[in-house]
Amino acid sequence: MCTYLTEKVSVRGSGKGACGWFGVTEASVYFDHPVHAQAGHTLNIDFLNPTAGPSARVAVELTAESARALAKAIQATLDCVPPGLLE
Amino acid sequence: MYDAVLAETVTMRGDSGDEIEAYLARPMRPGPSGGVVVIHHMPGYDEGTKEITRTFAVHGYNAIMPNLYHRDAPGASPDDAAAAARAKGGVPDARLVADVAGAAAHLRGLSSANGKVGVIGYCSGGRQAVLAAVSLPLEAAVDCYGAFVVGAPPEGMPLKAGPIKHLIKELSCPLLGLFGAEDSHPSPQQVAELEEELKAQGKTYEFHSYEGAGHAFFAVNRPSYRPDAALDGWQRIFTWFGRYLSS
């Protein structure tokens, strides 16, 4: 089914989309039908800059298992950053 | 037999008279031909649904697929537009109905039209096909595994769509339903509940649920594709539209 379940988070950084790099201001995280991944449902993340239009988007579609692994890796990486480097 | 078809992007009038993009496929024969409005699934106005639209033309129908996300992201690629639309909670029901009405009018206005128009939708479009058929004068409808025709979306889901079972009494045309027996949205229980309501309201309908198939069994580019169910389903669709949309 189309779940539409979405978590939105404000972010600060950059992403590289179809037209090159742009500043990302928002991320949408949702579990729904993928466009391209070969799975019924995937954990999808859109890195967006809504002020630059709908094409300012970096999209990933991950299986639930790989999304959990990614979340863990992000957390582990940040946990290892020496104090003072985190702004 | 002359079998050429023409498929192209056109502009049509939708809700509030807005000009929106649509994909029109039609046989290059003088007609008269029935018309089919194709409602795309949640991932949007994509290659797979364009192929479905062309398939109706190959089988002798004028078919049109309105880009339901056109307003959300004009000119954007279909996947970017789908992301923008889903961020807004999907397509509002009233807008959907008016866009389908515009698409049906576009088909009826073609010189080769026989005046009869059916609607078919997949996934979220399955519910929207039923919604169109309870809201507009149409000649036939096909619901391919539409969720939330019966049963409300789970708590907290920002989907702008609720159950429409209470509107079944307004159904304007015969309804064909094609479902996967292993689908959970709609579940076999929800399909049975919808069937009960159609029966209670004395509506013409035909339901088929395929064993070994779940959601999206028509989608050839997804692992959910089930060729046996899809091939039988296509046959049912053409029999249905042949019965109710022919001249």
Description of the molecule:
- Helices cover 20% and strands 44% of the residues of chain A.
- Chain A has a 4-stranded antiparallel beta sheet with strand order 1-2-3-4.
- Chain A has 87 residues and is an alpha+beta fold.
- Chain A has one domain.
- Chain A is built from 1 helix and 4 strands, in the order ββββα.
- Chain B has 247 residues and is of the alpha/beta class.
- Chain B has one domain: 3-Layer(aba) Sandwich (Rossmann fold).
- Helices cover 33% and strands 23% of the residues of chain B.
- Chain B has 6 helices and 8 strands, in the order E-E-E-H-E-H-H-E-H-E-E-H-E-H.
- In chain B, strands 1-2-4-3-5-6-7-8 form an 8-stranded mixed beta sheet, with helices on both faces.
- At the A-B interface, strand 2 of A face helix 2 of B.
Class by SSE composition of chain B: alpha/beta
CATH architecture of chain B: 3-Layer(aba) Sandwich
Rg of chain B (CA only): 17 Å
For this structure, the CATH topology of chain B is: Rossmann fold
Q: Low-confidence segments of chain B, ≥5 residues, pLDDT <50?
A: none
